[in-house]
Structures are given as C-alpha cells and as structure tokens.
C-alpha cells in the first residue's frame, strides 16, 4: 500500500494529478492521498509552490547579498555596528520569510520523502530558530 504524500499515513489508495514546477518548467505528476482533506492540502501546496519556486534562486541571491553586506561594510569602514546589529536583523528577516512562505525551498522529491505537511512544519520551525538566534545575538551583542 502506498503512503499519502501529504501526511504519510499508510493506505493512500487514490491519486491526484497536479501541475508543479520542476526543473524550470511546469510538469504534471500524480501524488497519492488518503482522504479529501489531504487532496485539498496537496492542491493548495502545489499552487503556492508554483508561485514561489521560480523566484527562489533570485530570493537566495538577494538573501546572500543582504546577509554578507554587513560583513563587507564592517571590513570597509571598521565599524562593528554592521555585524552586531544589521546581520542579526537580516537573519531574523530570513527566518520570517521561511515562516511566511515555506514552499519552494526544495524540490518536490524532498517534500515527498518526509511528507509535505511535516517538511513545511520543519521549514517553519527553522525560521523560528533563525529568529530566536537573531534575537539572542542582539540581546547578547
């Protein structure tokens, strides 16, 4: 018996076809689901994933520039303000983005491995930990 691709429960007897972003283009794939709620959640995930996945590499490059910017500015100006204040703020902003829009971070095969539901939860938890570590850096700064 197949497992549900959303919640990973045993006994997913039905399949649903979705169009999802994969390797630079939309492709149709079939995912197993166990009940109607999981089917709706899969379709909801695919629509939000398709909005975010094509822009993901651009977002990563912007994050890298924003996060490395304070270190470069400190090296140029020798002012510790940039690393002690601006870098944790950028880390917190990255965590907030992961909490708000966790879709599109990985390919669908990674979501299917653990289950879409739990992988999204893991990404949101990672965002919370990024915000907590940024707050700790600012507090202890």
Task: Please give a quick description of this structure.
The protein is of the alpha+beta class. It has one domain (14-140).
**How far apart are the termini?**
53 Å
**Rg from alpha-carbon coordinates:** 19 Å
Residue ranges: pLDDT <50 for 5 or more in a row? none
Helix content: 55-70%
Q: What share of the residues does DSSP label as strand, in percent? A: 5-15%
Structural class: alpha+beta
In this structure, how is the largest beta sheet organized?
2 strands, antiparallel
Query: How many separate structural domains?
Result: 1
Q: Helical element count?
A: 5
Strand order of the largest sheet: 1-2
How many DSSP-defined strands? 2
Name the helix and strand elements from N-terminus to C-terminus, one letter apiece. EEHHHHH
Shape: elongated
Mean pLDDT: 86
Describe the protein in words.
This protein is of the alpha+beta class. The chain has one domain (14-140). The chain is 65% helix and 13% strand. The chain has a two-stranded antiparallel ribbon with strand order 1-2. Helix 2 (56-77) packs antiparallel against helix 3 (81-100) and helix 3 runs antiparallel to helix 5 (116-140).
Question: SSE layout and pairings?
Answer:
Blueprint: E1 14-22, E2 25-33, H1 36-52, H2 56-77, H3 81-100, H4 108-114, H5 116-140
Antiparallel strand pairs: 1-2
Helix pairs in contact: 2-3, 3-5, 4-5
Key terms for this structure?
5 helices, alpha+beta, 141 residues
